[in-house]
Each structure stands twice: as C-alpha cells, then as structure tokens.
Amino acid sequence: MKEQKKSWNELPIGGSILEAGNSKNYFTGTWRTFKPVHNAKLCINCYFCWMHCPDDSIVIENGKVTGMDLDHCKGCGVCAEVCPKKAITMEKEEK
Ligand code: SF4
Ligand code: SF4
C-alpha cells in the first residue's frame, strides 16, 4: 500500500478537494483500526454490504462478493452490521 503524504503547505487552503473523482488516489485504509473479514461460505451474495459501504470497498467479481478493497476500506463496520448472514466479521488490524 503506497501512502500519499503532503506537507501542510502543499495542501489546498481549507482542505478543499480540487480534483473531482480523486478518491482512489488516497489510501484511506491506513486509518483503519479494525478490518472486515469476509466468509464466502456464509455469503449469499445479497449485496447489502455493497449497497451500504460508504467507501465503495466491497469487491465483486463475476457476480460474487470476494472481499474488500483494503487500500480504501476505513473499517467502519457498516458491512458487518448489515450482513444478514453474519458473513463479515470485524477483526483488530495488525499494523
Ligand atoms: S451482506 Fe453478507 S451475505 Fe450479503 S453479499 Fe455482503 S457478505 Fe454476502
Ligand atoms: S468496513 Fe466500512 S468501509 Fe470497510 S468495507 Fe465495510 S462498510 Fe466498507
């Protein structure tokens, strides 16, 4: 994971976001203290987690949830809360 760091005097005044659609450039996963762990055996691919994730970090491949984009997942736990099958658990992040 490549972390982007700017010094305070390189940031736009007021922390404004000047380039629309740039969220992929910022690795917000570095903020995480807990990470979601997906259990494919319990998952029924209802996509509730995908619908509710505020960071668009649920990975779907060939129509199935396969895990999370941990470069951008902030570990909020919403996906685990909404999962009807308890197929996502939050685990302490080892850093
Ligand atoms: S909410 Fe749970 S069961 Fe539904 S797709 Fe996500 S992980 Fe699978
Ligand atoms: S923990 Fe939060 S940010 Fe990470 S995948 Fe789940 S809902 Fe998205």
Could you characterize the architecture of this molecule?
11% of the residues lie in helices and 20% in strands. It is built from two helices and four strands, in the order βαββαβ. The protein has 95 residues and is of the alpha+beta class. The longest helix has 5 residues. The strands form two sheets. Strands 1-4 form a two-stranded antiparallel ribbon. Strands 2-3 form a two-stranded antiparallel ribbon. The chain has a domain of 66 residues: Alpha-Beta Plaits, CATH 3.30.70. Strand 2 and strand 3 form a beta hairpin. The chain binds iron/sulfur cluster (2 copies). The site of one iron/sulfur cluster has 14 residues, from helix 2.
